[in-house]
Amino acid sequence: MKQKYLNFFIINLLPKPLVYFDLKPLFLIGLFTFNFTSWALTLPKQLNHSDREQITRQLGLNTSTKLLSNPFPLGGYSGFEIGLSAEFIDIHKIAKLGCSPATSGCPNTWNGEEELVLPRLIIGKGLYENVDIFMHFTPQIAQIDFSSFGGSLRYSFFEAKFFPANISLVLNAHNISFSNEFQCLTLGADLVSGIYVDNISFYLGGGILQAKGTFLASSGANATVDNSDPEVNIATQTVIHKMTQFHMYVGTTYHLNDLFIAAQMDRYPEETYSARLGFRF
Questions:
Q1: Which of 131, 140, 200, 231 is the most buried (most CB within 10 A)?
Q2: pTM metric for this prediction
Q3: pLDDT, tens digit, for every residue of 35-74?
Q4: 99: nearest Cα among 54, 40, 56, 51
Q5: Distance of CA 83 to CAs 69, 121, 206, 261, Å?
């Protein structure tokens, strides 16, 4: 019923140039002129074992690949979607890690960022019937030594006959790096259940994530990890932390012709929020 009134508004009340205006060119222009700027994050110095586990969890697991898409397949080989997303990750605890500012020679200030805003360009493509592939990355910025890229493979293996609901298996991978001081590879496998009614979809997912965080060791007060730490690998001058975490998420999408918006909340158990604007062609 709401869609009927919306269509009436678009056709009869909006100026005719707006009704027939194709938003795709405008979207693509904005896509390639968008300023992909993430908040520059400075990692605390002289991290101990528990500090490194905290960073691996918050900057590794919590930045894992997000679905942010209609839970139903893209529609075979012809299906294609592209969009921009932003993730909002609470990192206020990270600012309190590392050596105390009161310690002689400690460069930390404990006045770090409260939130990491992570932008991503996401591209989805239908491969075959109920199989889709998605790729995402944050374009490299000259003034910020930061990178983020990954992808996922989705297989919708069940679709109800008399109700618009389905269940999918989603395999995903994500790699993130901050100034080469910390790098984390996250792998995951999720089950996602979704419904799609009147241009609105809702989905609920959950699964297992595995993270492998690698910290670069060096000497001096500005070292993220001091190379005298007993856990440092002498040959590679790195420290590796691995962890496994179950996580759940809930999301929704709204479609207006080819345009769609999506929102999602993840729990790791810390909560993260993300949103996306995109097109399905």
A1: 131
A2: 0.84
A3: 544 455 788 889 999 999 999 999 999 999 999 999 999 9
A4: 51
A5: 10, 6, 23, 9
